[in-house]
Amino acid sequence: MIPAILPTYNRAPLAFERGEGSWLVAEDGQRYLDLAAGIAVNALGHAHPKLVQVLAEQGAKLWHVSNIYRVPQQEALAALLVEHSFADTVFFTNSGTEACELAVKMARKHFSASAPERTRILAFNGAFHGRSSAAIAASGSEKMVKGFGPLLPGFAQFEFGGEEVFEALKAPDVAAVMVEPIQGEGGIRAAEDGWLKRLRGACDEAGVLLILDEVQCGMGRTGRLFAHEWAGITPDIMMVAKGIGGGFPLGAVLATEGAAKEMTAGSHGSTYGGNPLGCAIGTAVTEIITGPGFLDEVNRKASLLRQSLEGLVAAHPEVFEEVRGSGLMLGLKCKAANTDIVQAGYGAHVLTVAAADNVLRLLPALTISDDEIAEAVTRLETAARTVEAAQ
Ligand SMILES: *Cc1c(COP(=O)(O)O)cnc(C)c1O
């Protein structure tokens, strides 16, 4: 018999009742050190006092009004994001997938009058952009598209970090290139800065838009507000979600005026997107991440964690192969099965996430402490020993 919850997830037999910073407390009172953070969503940890306060205050005043009215909380968050990024304008969504939908629509609309043949979006192998028809067509992966055809047309995939895309994007039917600066689901695979720079240059030369998917790697995760800042480039359109709401469902598309100017009244909308409650929380999250010294601390803790993980890999060469990624978006490429290590982690009370390419993902709260980093590595070591003993 089918369970009451559609069984699309293979769930671990754990249920949490409470969260405190980098810790999750299970129904039986057991405490788990959370290096998953809701898959890079709980950027400020669980139950951050400021976010709890904003949620309670805004929750007592006004949750939702339609976008047929002005929403001051939305205006405040948009202004903050514009101030701290390349963008001139922002549209709020409830998720990364919806941000992907708008990014695709915006790119196509951009050319619809001036060059209507430009509809194709070039994306990359290993990419993850969400689960909508457009997002799975963009990723093109067998696992995501199988059985869901006919696929939305107008997408093609190329080798991530490879050369073919540079020739392909010169075709006259290309509207945009869509890429994650660091692939998350794909296995914490970081694009090289030089490749991203060349991609930006090639898009400019061909008159093609560059869409960056920073749903996972954005909002301070890599030690800069947005990952593309490390490469010294800016996109035309960018998708954001996950960390921006700190756990409240919130996403956004950020864009330059040039890319966005065809999106006129009536061309797009959302019932919930940009509601006062979500935007009040998003503003609090963004103010904290862009606040004095916050990202310096992320960078300091990131190098501490990375160094400790290098030691862990060296001490357990049968289990781990290398550390990859950037900031607090780190991956351990595994020799043992990554899912076995995730499983052993549950026993050691440390939570991690599997990713493609046999990688163990570590996406702790950006507020994780030095002591918690040391504790995390100790617990990962316990998990590694468990896996070794079973080998
Ligand atoms: C999670 C994710 C998405 C999809 O976001 P949802 O909020 O799950 O719809 C899109 N792109 C990337 C890079 C992601 O990590």
TrEMBL record:
Belongs to the class-III pyridoxal-phosphate-dependent aminotransferase family. ArgD subfamily. N(2)-acetyl-L-ornithine binds at R131, S270. Its EC number is 2.6.1.11. GO terms for molecular function: identical protein binding; N2-acetyl-L-ornithine:2-oxoglutarate 5-aminotransferase activity; pyridoxal phosphate binding. It holds the Pfam family Aminotran_3. Its cofactor is pyridoxal 5'-phosphate. The modification N6-(pyridoxal phosphate)lysine is found at K242. CDD domains: OAT_like. It is found in: Cytoplasm. Pathway: Amino-acid biosynthesis; L-arginine biosynthesis; N(2)-acetyl-L-ornithine from L-glutamate: step 4/4. May also have succinyldiaminopimelate aminotransferase activity, thus carrying out the corresponding step in lysine biosynthesis. It catalyses: N(2)-acetyl-L-ornithine + 2-oxoglutarate = N-acetyl-L-glutamate 5-semialdehyde + L-glutamate. It is an enzyme of class 2 (transferase). Homodimer. Pyridoxal 5'-phosphate binds at G96, T97, F128, D213, E214, V215, Q216, T271. This is Acetylornithine aminotransferase. One of its GO terms (cellular component) is cytoplasm. Keywords: Amino-acid biosynthesis, Aminotransferase, Arginine biosynthesis, Cytoplasm, Pyridoxal phosphate, Transferase. The keyword Amino-acid biosynthesis applies. Binds 1 pyridoxal phosphate per subunit. One of its GO terms (biological process) is L-arginine biosynthetic process.
